[in-house]
Amino acid sequence: MNIADLRHYSIEEYKKAYRSKEFTPTAVTRVFFDRIRELEGDIHAFLAIDEEGAMKRARELEEKKISDTDFPPLYGIPIAVKDNICVKGLQATCGSRILRNFVAPYDATVVEKLKKAGVIILGKTNMDEFAMGSSTENSGYGPTRNPLDRERVPGGSSGGSAACVAALEAPLSLGSDTGGSVRQPAAFCGIVGLRPTYGRVSRYGLVSFASSLDQIGPLTRTVDDCITLFEVISGQDERDSTCAPYPPFSRNDIPKDEEIPKIRIGIPNEYFTPGVDPAISGRIREVIDLLVNKGFPVINVSLPHTDFGLESYYIVALAEASSNLARYDGVLYGFRKEGSFTLQEMYTRTRTEGFGKEVLRRIVLGTYSLSSGYYDEYYLKGMKVRTLVRKDFEASFQNCDLLLTPVTPCLPFRFGERSRDPYQMYLADVFTIPSAMAGIPGISLNCGYQDHLPIGLQILSAPFAEGKLLGFARYLEKLLSIPLPFPEKMPRKESL
Ligand code: GLN
């Protein structure tokens, strides 16, 4: 076997190889750093690479005697972490110049859990500044390229996390999803991305963008790896009061094989409008036909407030962001512009220089909608509309178990194509935002290619029904058998 083939392994395969002593964690970790060296100049998925720390960790794991029975769930598995999630001793810039010298003083709860489960952290991944964007073009450190087509964006804001997994620079990664930032880049890079139910995964140690929406989620090459990673990171945390009082997700929550074909599928009309790229809607219709042929109960449903999802998100999320980002004032964290005469001047100059254009735009808009006299008209109204969006989903889940939709209305776009017009950029998330506003879980699954560009299928479920969601996603992944993205060997259309 060629050692580079190791990069294609699943978590289970790594663990099997470790148990049988076929390979060691050091050998596997080294293979990923070789790949990172080979591709990073071009892809730029990482903002920080911790080769020394990772190799040391791999050696430590090897030295520990582990019996077959207490093999930790992610023993010796390399992982990349988005740069807005704190890993003690590593930078956490959130893709922003204002945090360029900030080193995390503690581990996020998810990172603590990952470490306990035996992972090896490779580094921190690139992202749109403070997770605001859909392409990584808003990163303060330059964009990430899509490994499937280097002229195109990898999606965002977790673009680095998606690109490194698609490019085989890491087998797994963590991202965060406020309005689509795990699912949309997963779709653009042809991999799996899960946004868990709001409150299913602790946000402690995730740098806040919009606290009522932010969720951490796995990006992986297969649904099974996503399940394993989700099992490890989920569960209640007393350090995050919004974390739901439920035990961690377990693969035992997944329905048995014979139960899967009974899952009722809903197709929301509002997600198949003329604005959707016909290659995407066409392919998803083919998948729906396939499911009908397999005997799944499939019905059409309506989510009448879908169109208001985006508008209300840009009120609620920006209001929360303006208040969360008030802490970056040059006093406690990160960058400070020196040479000011007054405190006010120091704040202004630090923030003007430290934040990028999109972040500044959002702070101004968010502050406006929270200001006295406008609060009722904007923020309060935005919250009321949010309730309507959530009620649409609640009503639809009376009649079906899962909803099937496109992840995005468009295929991965070229650099610069949308960055000049913020509204065009915001539209890349029209199909991921409403479910985020409703707090429900969603997964992005590669369901085929248009030429070499991947098409993402989104599956949504009721809150805390990830068992059904992941069970069905795993079934569909097997049924469709779509080849994984592999930059040197792009799948050809005829093979799909
Ligand atoms: N693209 C959306 C935004 O810019 C969502 C980002 C996210 O989920 N972090 O806000």
Chain-wise SSE layout:
Elements: H1 11-19, H2 25-43, E1 46-49, H3 51-63, E2 78-82, H4 109-116, E3 120-125, H5 159-166, E4 172-177, H6 183-189, E5 192-195, E6 215-220, H7 223-233, E7 265-268, H8 278-293, E8 298-301, H9 306-324, H10 343-354, H11 357-370, H12 376-399, E9 402-406, H13 422-427, H14 433-438, E10 442-450, E11 453-461, H15 466-480
Parallel strand pairs: 2-3, 2-4, 7-8, 7-9
Antiparallel strand pairs: 1-3, 4-6, 5-6, 5-10, 9-11, 10-11
Helix pairs in contact: 2-3, 5-6, 9-11, 9-12
Glutamine binds at residues 131-134, 157, 177-181, 209, 317, 429.
Order of strands, widest sheet: 1-3-2-4-6-5-10-11-9-7-8
Low-confidence stretches: 492-496
State the end-to-end CA separation. 27 Å
Helix fraction, binned, reads 25-40%
Can you tell me about this structure?
With 496 residues, the chain is an alpha/beta fold. It has a domain at 3-256 and 474-480: Alpha-Beta Complex (Amidase signature (AS) enzymes), CATH 3.90.1300. The protein is built from 15 helices and eleven strands. It has helices at residues 11-19, 25-43, 51-63, 109-116, 159-166, 183-189, 223-233, 278-293, 306-324, 343-354, 357-370, 376-399, 422-427, 433-438, 466-480; strands spanning 46-49, 78-82, 120-125, 172-177, 192-195, 215-220, 265-268, 298-301, 402-406, 442-450, 453-461. It has an eleven-stranded mixed β-sheet with strand order 1-3-2-4-6-5-10-11-9-7-8. α5 (159-166) packs parallel to α6, α9 crosses α11 (357-370) and α9 crosses α12. The longest helix is centred in the last third of the chain and has 24 residues, at 376-399. Mean pLDDT is 95; it is low at 492-496. The site of glutamine has 13 residues, from loops.
